[in-house]
Amino acid sequence: MSFEVPKDKNIIEATIENEMKKSYIDYSMSVIVSRALPDVRDGLKPVQRRILFSMNELGLHHNKKENKCARIVGEVMGKYHPHGDSSIYMALVRMAQAFSLRYPLVKGQGNFGNIDFGPASMRYTEAKMEKLTDEMLYDIDKETVEFIPNYDETMKEPTVLPARIPNLFINGAQGIAVGLATSIPPHNLSETLDGVLALLDNPDIEIKPARVGSDEPKGLMDYIKAPDFPSKGIIYGYSGIQSMYETGRGRVVLRGRIEYFEPSSKNSRPILVVTELPYQISRKAVIDKIVELHKEKKIEGIYDIVNESSKQTRIVIELKKDANPEVMINQLYKFTPLQTSISGNVIALVNNKPVQLNLKQYLNLFIKYREEIIVNRTAYDLRKAQDRIHILEGLKIALDNIDRVIKIIRESENTETAKNQLMIEFNLSDIQATAILAMRLSQLTGLERIKLENEIEELLLKIKDYNEILESHERRLNIIREETLDIKTRFGDERSSEIIYQADDMTVEELIPDDEMVITISHEGYIKRVLSNEYKAQGRGGFGSRGAASRDNDFIQHMITAKNHDYIMIFTEDGRCYWKKVWEIPETAKTAKGRPVVNLIERAHGVKIKSILIVRDFENDGKYLVMITKNGVIKKTPLMDYSRPNRGGIIAINLREGDELLDVQITTGENEILLGTSLGYANRFHEDEIREVGRNSIGVKGIELRENDFVVGMVVADSETTPVLVISRNGYGKRTEIGEYRKTKRGSKGVISMNVTDKTGDMIAVTKAVEGNDLMIMTKEGIAIRQSVGKIRIMGRNTQGVRLITLRETDMIGDICIVPESPEEYENIDNQDVENTEVGDVEVIASEADNTTTEAETSEE
Questions:
Q1: Model confidence over 16-75: pLDDT tens digits?
Q2: Which of 598, 633, 721, 776 could form a disulfide with 629 if both were Cys (CB 3.0 to 4.6 A apart)?
Q3: Is 124 a catalytic residue?
């Protein structure tokens, strides 16, 4: 049985397949163009654009009072956006959230929510535009953009905003349309504008960065390095970012920031503190995932977790005492949202069509759009200037013939007759005649005539300038350059997200300039890397500058100059060696405290770092590594044997049970070695006496230790005048030239280095002490004193030394170290009371047997 459609001119016959296809395409394009994707020119979706335009119409500028969000939402919904109020309000809220947009465009008053909770109702919150938003609407009243009828054709709305900032990149965009999606991570404004300036200066610039050491011009990625997220975080790896910039598609691996803190007392536990989260990851999601993994025993070692966050993120993870913090950190990154991957899919509307763009294409389109805005603005200004000068020329004609003009007006029956008569007699236009009739009597004075002539001259100059702008492409580019520099000066800021280049990124080292850096390591184990030119030179008597934000009782222990492509070798007391490239150390501001060293190397919990060395080339930088252990074992191994450590470190020296690595130094094969012991003895010998052994060996005897004795330090000397500093447990010390120590043989008992008595206590340190450095002394009770090495007296070998610090009866020296001479680094140490502290050569106590030869001096191997 067939069904026939009645014949009717209002019925159109069509197959269901064709109708569904047509309707679906129409729907798809509506979603793509009118809802989900941003326009490449202003980086806004329609609802965002309508919100900002409505706020501009309401006069809600940054220097005016806020208005209720309900009022703004009603304005947008009633005039321009016929959709639900909740969708409009949430778009408004997102533009006000500092954790959502890198550069918020709306300034909110009230509860606009946080990463875990939503905002208050629109009837409670208020909003106005941010100062930066003025740059999005700049010159909108000068016919710079096209206006179209709104949904009910009762008023006009802009198709795009005349943005002066590259909003698509600095704030990013996310949107899911039909059949495609966009995901553009936010970027730093200063870096993005630097990229715009670089493209203006060199239209042929490449995207990829220039190779280090080559004469190639810089690429765009030398200016725009990576995305920059409002939630900060750590960008981990670089290959995906380069792919995104070159093809428009890639990914960004983003980590939260986790800091490790040692137990503060015997009863406390080690803790991990999460201070930064990946972009758009909530604290609740992280905590819930950690709890779930702990219950499933996928992550073990967590004792408790507490959310101490307020405006700033602070999630405290208390660990069990036997937990390995490095393993815990790696597990948190691997199994929880603390490490996430953000896709980069740069798709935007270009001429109302979705297009995938690489970095250079986007910047070129932005510059092209800015040039169009300048052309439209200049044409408007030219037209207004020409209209004004046309009126002024008519007024000038009237002033030149004022008597006749007055007569015509007085003799006319009405205004229309007077206007027609003036137009006929003086060949004026309707506008000019109307302006003459509206002229006030005060404009007939001589001064007003001069003002009129000056205004005409100024307008003629402006008209000439406007015509030059419209005719000259280079002139328009210069205007874009000037505006870009002005915006960068007023709104530019520093990068928020740290970049860590992974070693498996094949081209990472080629991307990083081999700049000279200053690496500082604090006594508490915080490390950072700063460009050397951040430490500006000062004249003698200068005040210095703040070098680090130290923690309580912390200070800079090591300050090393190295280049980005150098290796930094780290040796721990358990005899293991780790190394990294200098560029792998996080680069920070000079005043930052840095990151814990334990977060950079995978070492056992509680194992101390004993030595840090800088190596440029394992084949040519020195020949040997010489190591000494607490039990007097010395080892000499070619430096090249340590050139290929794995991620978990390598064995630097095989230790016998109960022994520990004490110090590691680079030698040339021609150095003198001095070993000092706790009982005050020292053994000096040439390094030729140490036979070379392999990396995984134990070593040979360096000194014959007496009962209850152990090694406390090693000095590598290259001349007879190398100063040696020795310090005792009770605060006595001295400097002695190494030439004062008679050479013996490797493995002998050595000679007296310090006359150890009950008054001085055991010798606790032997180290090289060159003038220009400082000596830092820390006591068991937490007293710290810093003094110049040059103020410590040079004395004979067999003496007790001078009193460096006067200790309380219950106190003794706990640790000493030689530090760079930079007092400003020590400004943050608490000024603790040190009674009767004596510095330098205040008290000298010499032994009666100062020049007596002892049994130790004649002992052989």
A1: 877 776 666 666 656 566 677 899 999 999 999 999 999 999 999 999 999 999 999 999
A2: 633
A3: yes
